[in-house]
Design brief:
718 residues, alpha+beta, Helix Hairpins, D-amino Acid Aminotransferase, Chain A, domain 1, OB fold (Dihydrolipoamide Acetyltransferase, E2P), 6 domains, 7-stranded antiparallel sheet, 5-stranded mixed sheet, 27 helices, 37% helix
Amino acid sequence: MTVDEKQAAKRLEQLRDEIRKHDRLYYDEATPTISDREYDRLYKQLVDLETQFPDLVTPDSPTQRVGGKPLQAFEQVPHLISMLSLDNTYSEQEVKNFHARIQRLLPNEKIPVVIEPKVDGVAVSLIYENGKLRQAATRGDGNVGDNITQNIRTIRSVPQRLRDGAPKLLEVRGEVYMDRKGFEKLNDERKKQGLPLFANPRNAAAGSLKQLDPAIVAKRPLGVVLYGTGATEGVDVDLHSEIFPLLKKLGLPTTERWWLAESVEEILDAIHELDGIRHNFAYQTDGAVVKVNSFAQRERLGFTAKSPRWAIAYKYAAERVETRLNDIIIQVGRTGILTPVAVLEPVVVSGSTVGRATLHNEDEIKRKNIRIGDTVVIEKAGEVIPAVVEVVKSKRPRGAEPFDFSKHIHGKCPVCGAPIRRDPEFVAWRCENLHCPAQTTRRVEFFAARGALDIESVGEIVADKLVERGLVREPLDLFELKVEQLAKLNLGTEEAPRVFGEKNATKAIKAIERARTLPLSRCLFAVAIPDVGKTTATQLARFHDGIEDVAHSRLLRDVLDYHEKRDQGESGKEIAERLIKAGFAKPSKSKAEKKRIVTEIGPVVAKSVLDFFASATGKNILRRLKELGIEPKSERVSAKKAAELPLAGKTFVLTGTLPSMTREEATEKIEALGGHVTGSVSKKTDYVLAGAEPGSKFDKAKQLGVPILDEAEFRKML
């Protein structure tokens, strides 16, 4: 090594140590000692020196946090020790029962417990070997998780290496979160770009960690709170309360507040005290975790199949706040349905300011007797738009009149002025004008949505402006857009212009071009055929070669003819045999209907599809697709192959939050293997796939004896 290299190596180590120190002071201890500008100056010195001496770059340098190429997929890694979830309760009585239970299991012993914040984030495990970060993983199914090491390295509060005195092996566990201010800023940016908004900070954190490109993750305001250990070597700790000072000593971010208690009264006091201060934390919390402090006592208390007996999570009820309802505005959706929205006196709920709340429909307003000027109770349970729970009738102003939906908008669509009518089937008012700009905008937005053609850059604002500026009159016009047109698109106002820009425009056009050859099921879903959701679109795509084939489907016509003959007292035997041979039907299992068949798609949906493509709108879509040269990819499966798919004929219902996949992802996996996903549980349901906090579907499945799977069992089935 030359003299220059030796001097450079020395200076590099000084800069790295100094930057790590300032990272710790800023992210871990919240006591920065230099300005952002001064920090940036130090960081630039490090970058410049490493550029000059590339051989001296080390993997744990602060500049390497966004290292590595985008991944093709996450590697699955086993946990050294299982990551179990905790039992949840909303009842203080259940907390008392928990304390009584552990006392009963360990009689005549003092059992101190620790109470700490339940961070509403994404559970992760970090493994340090000899002080260096080796691996980071999500919880997954508790036994196996996604390897997210590249993404975790981008989080500045996570040290690449621990301070002196690090043990040989240290697995730390905690939650990755997105801080409140960062979440609001990120959603503001996404709104400006026309991208879908994240529902809450937890969703934003989970979505960030699922990114395959660490460069994207690095731009997200993520942090981590660590509160426990897994596998360790060389760690001399007997009590959970000793973990917090140990983590802090090693430079790891941990919770700022925790309590030690020996009695139920002390536990409940700590839970109440935490509730009073938790909204001041940078991260969201949704409860308090109570854990037995002694590891020796934990070992004797043991585990159930899914959770430890020595811990419980108490979840706070959703926060409710009173405010004044100043007005009710009406929004128009893609199908013309008019939705009332409450305009509120701005109020802080769960740490963020809320100015609007959903009112669902006219019947909801009547049922709750909501009037303009009322003081209302609103509840925000983690969603972007909270709901009006009830009216405080004692505070109702004199002269407040019952809300008349039609009269409020003078019997006309608030966007286009066309007549409106009440749709009895959907308990809603609907705009009659198919060319209403609001409907066009929502249809364009729906057409480009992730579950449809996945044109990421075309969200609400971009769709609004494309229609407003006359560049798009119907969704398929997107395929005729040019980069130059999109780049000049003004997303702001004439007084305060804000152009879409060439970079965003190029990205959008690439996504639009990719959409030309997406699977047929996505195209069928995107064109918004009445009664056709994602599952039905997938079923249709399996039995047809293309969209023209669906439009003139012999199978769908046979379904209608078969049911018509049955209604007229005829057997429809020939049609039934034809449908069974095609794999589009099977004999009914019902004893009362043993001569009947069950078709993949019922007569109502079959009629809806055929009527849609026979209408002027449907014919126009077929004509435009042909003109534009758009040919969705066929997903046809032969009757024999369809019958051989592992989940052929099986019906699933999903409930709760799965540990490592969204419901959409689970649905895609089920449908790819021949299964169906429905929204309600019945005796005909084959399986219920349940995640955390399942709803009434879980209870109904137990009542009916329907098999219930967790994600681990579901993955084995796949």
